[in-house]
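Q: SAM-dependent methyltransferase-like, please. Structure only.
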Amino acid sequence: MPVVTLTDRIEWAIVARESLFDERHQAGLRLFNGFLEGEPQLVIDLYATTAVVHNYADPPQAGEALVEQVLAWLPTRLPWLEAILVKTRHSDDETAQNGVLRYGTSLATRIREHGVWYALDLTMNRDASLYLDTRNLRQWILANLADKTVLNTFAYTGSLGVAAVAAGAKRVVQTDRNRRFLNVAKTSHTLNGFPIHKPDFQTDDFWLHMNKFKRKDELFDCVIVDPPMFAATDHGVVDLTQNYTKVLNRVRPLMEHNGTIIAINNALFLSGEEYLALLEKICADGYVEVEQYIDIAEDFTGYPTTRLSKPITNPSPFNHSTKIAVLKTRRRGF
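A: Structure for SAM-dependent methyltransferase-like:
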């Protein structure tokens, strides 16, 4: 039996994703998901003309030979690549975690998706400033949030809110604790020619912020809830496996009648059935119901021709550990 190399597996992954490439090389996609496609120490994302190689090996030195193979091979396979950034997840060095340029001279600063530009700051932190796995959600937002009022909590760099603006939403409020993240959202506005209404970019603690909205009787047609895995402040704790229902209950008083909560939970070790059990607690009073799930695209889940492993935890009825549910809400008295 012939020996299958790392570059063989990446080649098969590229072939499976050919329909996602565009002639101008402006797209973003997961080029190789090693967790499911044969090399769990390595993931490669593509942001326009920049490849971001994630070294998940622990210790990191165990993955360096794999990284070197990618650095030598990938520019010959994709000759239009202008840069390769390597992020070393388990390094003790913050710079290595955030990314070191190992090929080329300049990183991509934007991608185009469904006709919308999204700004990038690829070395801002150990993530790459834009979560590509929520691409299908941004497409759903484009199709469903015209003329709506939208609150994007835990906005990070605001891509979901930017999609809502592109959809023609009446108002979009972006909230996050980190002003630097929200500045990337403002850059996305500029790239698309959207006006920047500064009061709609709000920096504050989630728990305090939701209380302020409630005191002001502010209501929204749609609230997007995409929290980090874990975060603790003096005012509250976010834990996707332990108190996610508390987070969702905090936004429920802000919903217009017949409103929509987009509930995202990306806890890797929380199964799909366990997540549904959390959502059922929210729905028990009869004022919330699960309307639909939004699947993650195949470049993240792997393709039938490339998928070699199963997820660590079964995400069913979702198709990925990033589990997205659309909830419909009713207000009492209607």
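A: Brief note, in case it's useful. The chain has a mean pLDDT of 96.
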